[in-house]
Amino acid sequence: MSVRVVARIRPLLGDKEMEKDVIVTAASTEEGRAPTIVKIPNPKNEAEEFSFAFNSVYDRDTTQEQLFTAEVAPHLKALFQGLDVTIFAYGVTGTGKTHTMRGGLKLAERGVIPRLLSNVFRRGKKIAKDSDGETTVSVTLSYYEIYNDKVFDLLEAPETRTPSGLRLSEKDGKTIVMGLSERACMDLKDFEQLYIEANNNRVTAATKLNAHSSRSHAILRVKVTQTTGDMVRESTVSAIDLAGSEDNRRTDNDKTRLVESAAINKSLFVLSQCINAISNGDKRIPYRESKMTRILSLGQNNGITIMILNLAPMRSYHLDTLSSLNVSSRAKRIEVREIENEVVFKMAPPPSRSISNLSGTRQALRPLANAHNVTTGLAAAKEKAAEKEKDKPVKAFSVYKEPSNKPLIGSITTSANITAPRRISSMSAPLAKKRPSDGMVLATDARPSKLARPTTHVALSSRPTPQPAGLTPEQIEEMIERKVAERLAALSAATAPAPPATESDHSHSKDISEEVSRRLEALERRIDGEQDARSDGLRLLLQARQAKQRGDDQAALEFYESALPYFPGQAKLLGKIERLKAKLSGVSEPVVGARPVKRVLKKREPEPSDDESYHEADADEEDEGYMSRPRKAAARRPLKQKVFVDEEEQGPPTPRTEQLLAVVNSRDIGQIKALHGVGAKKARDLVEFLEDEGREIQSLGQLRMVPGMGGRAVERALEGMIA
Ligand SMILES: Nc1ncnc2c1ncn2[C@@H]1O[C@H](COP(=O)(O)OP(=O)(O)OP(=O)(O)O)[C@@H](O)[C@H]1O
């Protein structure tokens, strides 16, 4: 089925919002039918009205209970039948997303999330009772936020956060948050206690547009495990409260808020790009350009997805509202496979986890799959799943195609019966799109969702890989370069008003061959997958070094310790930690035993652990001032690349070192990209890093430490400089 998209218009608030300023209204296709249309005037000509069609539209007087009963409660049965459910709130800041998802404390004001949990517990108890205790149902929660594109566990105390947040990883095509905690939850009281406490950890702040604005995307995952004998069925409901897009010309945001806002707007921009790409039938969906879209995996997850578009009815939100109407009405065209999670056979979990007998104690930390359940059955079950996986298409989404006789562009209804589509050229919001979307058609697809019905799906079949006729490898490379440059430009424009999306944009994206898409995606996956952990770890190492240079050994120790999980068992890192501990505890001589074995020998040995991460982490040792044992330069010789760079570093910087550093510090992506061995991604990461750190790179050693650079890249860049 398609993603179900419903719109909710919030009521007017306070004295400042007045009826005369209301411009957004709900309408029905036929008298007496429930509303499915949102109407809003054309900002350029108020006599014209745009109409956007949704699966359902909820007007200003809709209560929390009505929304829940109509949109969420019907999917509970499916959840217990093994389908995953995702509900997310989307909209401009201050339009009621948190109100819809979380709501107030009073019973009538409770939002989707507490009502959902209440129903899950009730149904779980009923199932246990009806089966005379043969089936046990347990509920576990995880709750995390994406703040400034970093993932933080909301069930953990903020002091325990590492600056780089939790890492995302991918397994079997699913996005996994590494190290996320899970808590068992026995009843509603248990949940409320956890939820209220966790929400205090969420980053919110007052902005001019909303006194309690969410500055992060919050994701609550509720895993329901039903166990009958050795049969286990897991399904997950994810409730996501996205942060709202905001037009910073209206917010008066200070620097911190602006940084947050840029991250929010960028991720929402990427989401809109994903929605456009899927609805256009593009081969390449830019999920990986933001953590939020990676986690949301819109259109990739099986099960049921409901998008709640929150709207403010007033004129002051006019352009922003149009923008979000445009994006969300396209989301309707995304199809998701409605497939139940498989029952797996395994040892029944200990009875203490069931609803009827939950201890409420914390579970051991372990990776958790997002938007999907992780099944951990026996080998047979795994084999079966693997077998199935082989038959699966690469992407688990498919695109609903409009019947050919249905116009793709929207109609505008006006009192003067104007039918020609109009362009919205003055949109200022980041998500603004000029091309009227199909959602503007007065469509009649307000059909109720079908539940728990494993459907056949029309999915993109396994991607063919033949090289397009007539394209040479060089041309392919050129296309990849061009596409990457376009994406970079799009990213840098993410916080600025969006350029108009034209028909030629679409046809242009179409002319990117499948081969190019495939290679670009593979490249991205490799870079993200392999480098995510490494860059996070290296960032921590760099922070440790900076702390050490400042003389803040305590902070340095903490950073080194935080970096340890990224370089498990790394002898040199362990050595640093031990020496710092010794130093801090007043032991004057470093512990000799902690001195790591000679690096060169280790590096030259083709040991399995001798991976890139190891090299990079090793490089961190360059300026250890407190080591008792002098470094043996000769011992380092065998590492060719290292020697080369070391020589450059001896004495005052050479002209080419200066030249290289000047290019790097220019923060000009074009110049940096042109360096030998530095591609578009590295250039972008480097500039982002410099912006984040607000500092300049002063030596090759420092440059090597920049996440994603590494010794070899620096060497190649240096080689390419004209001395
Ligand atoms: N349906 C509603 N009924 C009553 N009050 C509402 C409703 N929707 C929103 N509000 C109120 O509007 C204000 C803004 O809502 P909320 O904080 O939920 O917006 P938001 O979209 O989550 O904003 P942000 O993206 O900035 O976090 C709050 O005071 C909230 O209580």
TrEMBL record:
Binding-site positions, ATP: 91-98
Chain segments annotated as transmembrane: none
Pfam families reported for this sequence: Kinesin
Entry-linked SUPFAM superfamilies: P-loop containing nucleoside triphosphate hydrolases, RuvA domain 2-like
Region (Disordered): 451-470, 493-516, 599-633
BP GO annotations: microtubule-based movement; mitotic spindle organization; spindle elongation
InterPro entries named in the record: Kinesin-like_fam, Kinesin_motor_dom, Kinesin_motor_dom_sf, P-loop_NTPase, RuvA_2-like
Compositionally skewed regions (Basic and acidic residues) per UniProt: 503-516, 603-617
One annotated Gene Ontology cellular component of this protein: microtubule
Domain Kinesin motor: 2-334
Alphabetically ordered keywords of this record: ATP-binding, Microtubule, Motor protein, Nucleotide-binding
GO molecular function, one term: microtubule motor activity
Protein family per UniProt: Belongs to the TRAFAC class myosin-kinesin ATPase superfamily. Kinesin family.
Protein name listed in UniProt: Kinesin motor domain-containing protein
Native species: Coniochaeta pulveracea
